Protein 1
Amino acid sequence: MSATVLDGKKVSAEIRAELTERVERLTRTYRPPGLAVILAGHDPASEIYVRNKVKACAEAGIRSFQSTPAASVSTEELLVLVDSYNRNPEVDGILIQMPLPPQVDAQRILLSVDPSKDADGFHPLNVGNLVANRPGPRSCTPAGVMELLRRYEVPLAGRRAVVVGRSDIVGKPMALLLLHANATVTICHSRTKDLAHECSRAEILVAAMGKPALIDRSFIREGAVVIDVGINRITDRDEVHRLFQHDPARLQAFARSGSVVVGDVDPLSMIQRSSAYTPVPGGVGPLTIAMLLSNTVSLAEQHLLS
Ligand code: NDP
């Protein structure tokens, strides 16, 4: 039987459509929800992410406020900026695009965001809410994965889940959300011994390492549900041809542009071994933005309706 594609684009469109009514109600009664985005410096990937987030806000009827301080910005200057958004009554959510320039104390900046405006769920107070399974904004990527699993009715309770990666943004919150859904969760990282063995026991496998196609068929249990969070751009011709020999369209795209995006999981192994999987691109990626919009609308509802 062929594996089910967990279609992030489709689910993202559903989530956004469902938000429309909530945004219209807020706009009619009070004002549009507002999201402030701070992008310090000129990291090319960050610039693309921010552009996409601002565009998605506009499409959803969310007002966005953008600040683009120079790469040389100091911690103190950023604190002043965050404070101005904390006080701005038209701003419901604040997003600080990571990574911040090296001279900036990122922890201090994240801590300075008003927890009731924490669109990414990175403030320690909201991390605590997550650990305690109390309401609060959740980190967008893992929240999107949970939404995808829920909408495809993937059972989690009592199942063995393995999360590879333990970052504050993806791996840790992902593991906690799966735990709260009653999965039996193992977290793996760069010091894990015999990663293949740990992964091969997973009924739900979430890969969030940032290592192109490291997870091959020997890591994937037959019939597992595989969630590939990784986004890696590769340019090596031999590697591209090895990984995408089954996919002429991707090889053509590579011939045109000289690079291709691959996840942390070997694409063909994932298709052949799993019962369901997220493609890269078009799996987890689109959900991250949808959940950012969803978090912003929820924060606006708390500010305006409660
Ligand atoms: P980080 O670099 O912050 O974390 C990577 C994690 O993977 C670390 O915990 C690290 O372990 C672990 N790791 C690295 N190498 C190995 C290895 N060989 N074996 C086992 N574990 C390993 O990355 P992020 O969590 O921010 O992102 C992970 C991936 O997800 C990236 O590709 C990123 O681009 C992508 N991403 C995608 C998003 C989307 O919307 N689809 C959103 C956010 C991220 P250790 O802690 O020991 O160093």
Protein 2
Amino acid sequence: MLTAIAGINWGDEGKGRMVDLLSKNYDIVVRYQGGNNAGHTVINDRGKFILNLLPSGILREGTINILGPGMVIDVEHLYNEVEKLRKAGIVITPENLKISDRATICMPYHKLLDILEEDRLGDAKFGSTRRGIAPVYADKYMKKAFRMGDLLHFEAIKKKLPSVIEWKNLTVHGGYKAEELKAGDMALWLENYGLPFKDYICDTTQYLNNAIDEGKSVIFEAQLGALRDIDFGIYPYTSSSSTIAAYAPIGAGIPSRKLDCTIGIMKAYSSCVGEGPFTCELFGKEGDELREAGGEYGAATGRPRRVGGFDVPASRYGVTVQGADEIALTKLDVLSYLNTIPVCVAYNVDGKQTEAFPSGEALADAKPVYEYLEGWKSDISGCRSFGDLPEKAKEYILYIQKKVGCRIKYVSVGAGRDEYFVL
Ligand code: GDP
Ligand code: MG
């Protein structure tokens, strides 16, 4: 069974918690894109963890975890993330963590360039996590990046570094007037943080193909959501990678394989971190209350997230581009405080009402059309079946299911591993 677990919205839908839950029935979990801009929160019997680079299967004994070729890896961040988990008692060895030799290394100058450019943009900033993701993907496509497999041939890296650093200095020092980069510093950084992973780096494509041939099951864990996809999201306020499930086999390193199932993770309301059009956004007291109720502060950055009601045009579009077979609806419990629940049912674009999700300037100008559904006003966090829910909560789920046109199979009513039920 090859299953993608991907975000339907703007990210932070609860992918980490669903991977942690569902990985029980899988052998391998692969992260297929993005880098340490991810913040996947998992709360289970071992504690609370925020994973940036490591797949959310790392917390289960016996699960194999792979960082796929579609990823960008800041090895210093990885080093620290692994150390932190080890201190919490999580065992991480080359047995349960494998890093693709084709994954791209996110270097300190990528992070620096991200920060320099966001600062230059000032008020027009993209709201980047400032972790170097856009600059490193740019270098990947410029074919100037280093890959994890290069660490196995360190002399070759040392030979290539001076030319790459000379090229980088044209922008870092020549353009932004920042301090000149030195090839020696970069070699040292790679030695300190990259070389400790030498035994973890391998041909994960071969490994995965063999494992699948032997009948092993795999989860492909996405970062961010459909609306942040580089091609299909709210460009340019997207991430720099393909967040959609169709990219999972490529980013995981097994492009010839086909997915058996895509589970779309969709939040019962909306949240969005960073800049960009967010039509359904709620402001003032209404927004503040929802943000507090949902604890909507970035897992990777701590930034307050923008919030809004469930967005039908955006979510239906997300379901379509993800090709979701089934949905996990998360954080339903968060809405329990509301007398009436705001739902953005359509957009007003150029004076016309539409349920389609526009792009570019049309999206920037879109105005939300809100409808209010009756709330259930009671604690549902103890519900473990659809039948346990109050009528109004049932109605809300069925209403959303109809609107997005995809079966809601899982509903989560709390952050803990067991706080969910299957429909
Ligand atoms: P991800 O990036 O998609 O993995 O999501 P995040 O971890 O960034 O954000 C989801 C947040 O919601 C985390 O703090 C989770 O612990 C929390 N969470 C997940 N599912 C539920 C739920 O059903 N109810 C509540 N109240 N919180 C949840
Ligand atoms: Mg997150």
